[in-house]
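2024-03-11 09:14:02 DEBUG pipeline.ingest accepted 1 chain
2024-03-11 09:14:02 DEBUG pipeline.ingest length=243
2024-03-11 09:14:03 DEBUG pipeline.predict start
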Amino acid sequence: MPRPVDAYRGLAQSSRLRVLDALMDAPGIGLSELSELTGLHVNTLRDHLRVLESEGHVCSEVERTGRRGRPRLRFALVTAADRNEVAERHLRDAIRHGDLMRAILPATESALPADATHQLDALHHHLSEVGLQPEIDEEALTIELEPCRFHALLAEDGAIACRVHEQLLRSVLERAGGPIVVDRVLPFTTEHTCLVHLALRDAAPAASGQGLAVERREERDAGRGPVVEVGRRRDDVGPRAQG
């Protein structure tokens, strides 16, 4: 399926990743508070939020105060529980395309349950739209991602970029519904490659704190970079180890 040239264009800018990162920590905040958190001018923020809303990443609602005057908007990340036309359209397109491919090419038939297969369809669609080339191994439940379209952002905003994309992966899986969850993400298995480890819900590590947070490893393993664990706050994720 051809990818639109403007697909997920909001994720290609560091400033928009900072907006999403701020909303992860402070959902439901107003424009002025978001400006303080990100250091971006309110006019610049309006443009970023418009793009992110159009892509199904951010939602807004009018604050009800009962007072006179123009009510302000409050912004939050779109979650899997939210009814969002754009996110739901992406999911329908992903499942429809996956089912069509399996009907045309029987060799692509999945051995996983239907709901898990559709979760992987949704992930593949999302990652392809972002501009990556996901290689999904259904048996190992891993996804190899390359090239990193956001490599230029990593020197300054690497932890933010990784954290935001991890959250988006989890949201895609949750919206699709099924047993697959994100276990952990291994960034920089090569200079431009990351590896996502998935797990079946029954076999996943017990949740502790946010999501699947587990202790962070810093040592390199067979040339791999540090593990960025799902559920870590941005100030818990240090810069990439040099090696």
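2024-03-11 09:14:41 DEBUG pipeline.report The chain has six helices and eight strands.
2024-03-11 09:14:41 DEBUG pipeline.predict end
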